[in-house]
Design goal:
Order of helices and strands of chain B: HEHEHHEHHEHEHEHEHEH
Oligomer: heterodimer
Structural class of chain A: alpha/beta
Mean pLDDT of chain A: 96
Number of helices of chain B: 11
Helix content of chain B: 40-55%
Shape of chain B: globular
CATH class of chain B: Alpha Beta
Mean pLDDT of chain B: 97
CATH class of the largest domain in chain A: Alpha Beta
CATH topology of chain B: TIM Barrel
Radius of gyration of chain A: 19 Å
Radius of gyration of chain B: 16 Å
Number of strands of chain B: 8
Amino acid sequence: MAEPSLEGRFGEFGGRFIPETLFTACEQLEVAFREAWADPSFRSDLDAILREYAGRPSILTECRQLGAKLGLRLVLKREDLNHTGSHKINNVLGQALLAKRMGKTRLVAETGAGQHGVASATAAALLGLECKVYMGAVDVERQALNVFRMKLLGAEVEAVHSGSRTLKDAVNEAMRDWVATVENTHYCLGSVMGPHPYPWMVREFHRVIGDEAREQCRALLGDDPDVVVACVGGGSNALGIFSGFVDGRARLIGVEPAGGAAVGRGQPGVVHGMRSYLLQDEHGQVEEAHSVSAGLDYPGVGPEHSYLASIGRAEYPSVDDAEVIEAFQLMARTEGIIPALECAHALAWIVREAPSLSGRTVLMNLSGRGDKDVGQMMEILSK
Amino acid sequence: MTRVDLEGALRSSRAKGRKLLVPYLTGGLGDWTRAVEAAVAAGADAVEIGIPFSDPAMDGPVIQESSQRALDAGATPSAILDELARLDVDVPMVVMCYYNTIHHAGLERFAASLARAGVAGAIVPDLPLEESGPWTRAADAESIDTVMLASPITPDERLPRICERARGFVYSVGLLGVTGERVELAATATVLAARLKKVTDRPVLIGVGVSSPDQAVEACSVADGVVMGASVVRRFLEGGPDGVGAFVGAVRSSLDAI
């Protein structure tokens, strides 16, 4: 995948639509990231920590029962087996190491489902950084277990009561914190979104998913898969795995929740520092996203996804909550794997499209485990 | 409303030895236009009108609340501009809006709608110099002054470029942080204003964290004037237009006594 332009653009998307204070901070971050990413000692420190702490490389698992049932070859990239239970750790370890290198002593982070918050709290504990996580009040309720995990890890968690009280408002609050604390604090943004250099930097930290998966697929399948599928909220796990295949022949599918389909239903807009597809009303007010999965409750999407959609390289279909709840149970029963509700979106699309995918090889990024969702599913299924 | 040139008006007041006072009010909330009139009657040199946005990432709790209440009451950019157009005041009006409001409307269309409403200037807090080109081209074409912001951590080499692109005045952000009242004027406030005064002849106004008449006086020991937001909005929420008039009047008297 290509670097964005010097202005941080992917085609007409991306950029740096942020207050002057954060502009300066983002410029410093970009310089620091460029230097670190080109520095073999930074890369080897990060590789070591990913291997010895996060548990990389993550394995591929072929779903024989589910594949047979659907009439295709289904392979999972098991990011759920990483330390802290999702792909989020890849990015967070990279950013936390970078923050230390920049002399910062504190991380702030936003979180939706809590996976990025838990990963940030974990990295902060490991590297001796302070950590404050902003989480929408609605999500604090939905993901009580992850809130407690963050606190156990020594992070401070603040419930955000403004706006829609979900992920987008947590991002606003984290940005407000960062504007005031930029001198000692790094904003550990959790997805391929926000102002340049975040969309690019976060994608680079997740590229390891795609790099590993390409080699593993060639070993297992003898070729690239026909289709690569991942869920998309901000879109970090999807870009991570797409980056291994974007130059090849595989179809790339980013599955959005029906109630938060920024690419599917949005128009170009500017929020959280970036120009990208965005759900907004007729006056340009950002709309609330609605999804069973807190991690995908985001009205925007990373700018590189908007770009990939605009040039037709990736497709962004959506699935509804009912399909997701079905898929969640299907994977648990047929494969003995409880997926995160976010990833159940990817599976729901595969299930729906199975007739047209007959005989194909399908690689799905299982970006997180579903333990955090068990309480919520218990409630949904008891209704 | 007849348009009053922003930079021209501010420069001419400054030339008379007057310190500049620009109160902020959230558009679309209750009888806000009466509050604008009260602020003008009490001695405002210009008034900044916030167009509420769903995601005001530069704003603290008070302006977040006023924005949300305005949105809940059905405020829209076009309705606010319509009301501004009907207002009869003799000082320049400046709108503050986040960039998506402009982007969504279309840059040329939005600039033209500001001009039609008699608006003299625009402050777009999430539009830094590097992203400002398309908007400032549209704004310049309609003679809308785009105020640029400088931050306490803006490097020296950027300041002249920001000042050069600024029209109306240069907004010297008083502190690292979002809008809101503070107990004291931050030490960064006058430091940045002094750096700006060295590189520009345009009026330099300190805003963000200027909360009381005393703080306004302190800021004006270096700056040409102040923008006061949360403190004014709080008076409006608590005491309506009369509360705004009384507060702006008190700040005016203190500044005039310098």
